[in-house]
Amino acid sequence: MHRSFYVTKCYAAVFVMLVSSLVGCSGGSDASEPRAPSPNVSAPSVTTISPNRAMAGSAAFTLTVNGANFVSESTVNFDGTPRPTTLVSALQLTAAIPASAIASAGTVAVSVTNSAPRGSSNAVSFTISGGTNPVPVISVLSPSGAPAGAGAFSLWISGSNFVAGSIVRWNGSDRATSFVDADDLEAQISATDVGAAGTAVITVFNPAPGGGPSNTADFPISEGGASPMSIAIDPTGRFAYVANLGVSPDVWIGDVSMFAVDVDTGLLTRMVPRVSAEHGPTAVTVHPSGKFVYVANQGDQGGGEDVGDVSIYSVDTTTGALTPTETVNGVCPSLCVPYGIAVDPTGNFAYVPSEGGPSPTTISMYSINAASGALTLIGTVGSGGRAIAVTVDSSGKYVYAVDGEDNAVAMFTVNGTSGALTPMGTLGAGATPYAITVDPSGKFVYVANSTCDNISMYSVSATTGALTSMGVATAGSSPRSIAVDPTSRFAYATNFGSNDVAMYTINASSGTLTFEGTVAAGACPVSVAIHSSGRFAYVTNNCSNDISIYSIDGTTGTLTPIGSIGT
Questions:
Q1: In what order do the strands lie in the sheet with 268-279?
Q2: Is 264 inside any structural domain?
Q3: Listed range (60-69, 147-156, 169-178, 450-459) with the worst mean pLDDT
Q4: What is the DSSP secondary-structure string of 272-333?
Q5: How confident is the model at residue 15 (pLDDT cuts 50, 70, 90)?
Q6: Is the pLDDT at 522 greater than 80, yes or no?
Q7: Which residue, 509, 446, 516, is CA-closest to 476?
Q8: pLDDT given for residue 539 in this prediction
Q9: Which of 408, 310, 307 is closest to 351 using CA atoms?
């Protein structure tokens, strides 16, 4: 099993949509103990075992047996000898195999026995090779890096030539290693290992005979947050905020990074420490007054009960520092796996799309307390299959959301008094629409289609707010966000798959995007934000845990890298 931290890691629900939307791009027990038989247990069967081979003379290992009709008294037999067996489920067992059982080359039988009279399973062959262990090869680390102080986590190593006795080494020291298969290992990394910034060297060692050390792989430990997602600039252009998803692909306990912006050079200075958030911070936005920040947390993706929520912060308007004030808890289906958040230009209302939960999902609508920034739920509105992102036009009259399951854009009118949304239909988009934005003039809407590698373009009716498709513009691999500069002359899209940013000029009359090339970003760029002056652009890089900083040519819109900083 191969894991990629942010292509799986980061988007389990979105992966389902990727698979479903590949069309439409045009728009434990001791075996020796006596056991009482369980009633109504059928004979077990074995389908596969892992590993299914080992080198003679290798170390002891854990054998995983997959099949059916396993029960608590099931016993794994290895070469005819019962071995200490643990029931994982009715479909899986594990057994402890000692080194003495694989001391000599040959082929042995693996089977499972249930207590009499339930019988034994079929036998599956396990090969004990008499040659030498291969030299291991590392291809991918997942996660690929972590911030200093991240805490303990599991490191997945993908590659080839791994064996049951393979050991992962961190800067030359052995770490507790679990053999998954010949292509994957899992190692336990302690909080001490990532206690300080730097670069750890990862190797895998295979035991004799043969074997030896693998190639090396660098694991950067950065002075910042892990897996940055969304970035937002405050209205004054003096502060920037980044939602950091977190290092664990199962729990995603993240935080929010704060930066001071040099308005002359565009460079960022990190404020420390970072401010805490809830599980899975994914999207961040700043209130038009600059007094409040809102973060959408998608929740505990490791099977916990946390379905996501919204964190609210007050802003020190002198320093830009955030202070947590409140958390708006999620309750499925009204607020389940919130994946984005938008505040209307008046600062009176907020809208949060629910990417998870029962399908179809909804958009939660809130009124905002002008003094405290507190959110009060005023209702929900259907948004189609999976609401991924939402945006409000500059007039505050219309809201648009992308539906990643039905590959569509949902359109709404806004009640100026209550903030309630009224649906006015949907329009097709490309496969897996991931982000949406309205240009500052309010005349055009653009949607990044992650699977189709393009940008859908729409014109906006000045009287009704309804969208009309204008076709698509090319992008790089897997575009994840799109932003338009304050003059509505240039647009920029991050390409998660090709590690770059696409640059566009915008036709002032038609709104058509003209592709002007790409500029390199960090690893796995996700979000792009434009400075209020229109002179600088900022891109969060999910896998390299940093922000790419660019200057913008006021005539051509071309981006020029001017620096980067860890989140």
A1: 228-233, 239-244, 253-261, 268-279
A2: no
A3: 147-156
A4: EEEEEEEE-EEEEEE-TTSSEEEEEE---TTS-S---EEEEEEE-TTT--EEEEEEEE--TT
A5: very low
A6: yes
A7: 516
A8: 98
A9: 310
Q: How far apart are CA 41 and CA 424, in angstroms?
A: 57
Say which amino acid occupies 502: A
**Phi, psi dihedral angles at 377 (to 5 degrees):** -65, 130
The domain in which residue 445 lies consists of 436-567
Per the structure, the count of domains in the chain is 3
Q: Is the peptide bond before 82 cis (omega within 30 degrees of 0)?
A: no
The tally of CA atoms less than 13 A away on the side-chain side of residue 500 is 14
pLDDT tens profile 457-472: 999 999 999 999 999 9
The Cα–Cα gap between 435 and 355 comes to 12
Name the one residue in this structure whose structure tokens are 């043969």: 210
Question: What pTM was estimated for this model as a whole?
Answer: 0.72
* 449 in a structural domain: yes
Report pLDDT for 249.
Answer: 47
Residue 453 has pLDDT above 50, yes or no: yes
User: What does DSSP assign to residue 17?
Assistant: H
Query: Residue 518 sits in a domain of what CATH number?
Result: 2.130.10.10
What CATH number is given to the structural domain containing 115? 2.60.40.10
Q: What's the CA gap between 324 and 290, in Å, rounded?
A: 15
Q: What is the mean pLDDT of residues 22-40?
A: 43
For residue 353, how many other CB atoms are within 10 A of its CB? 29
Distance CA 446, CA 439 (A): 8
Token representation of residue 215? 């190639």
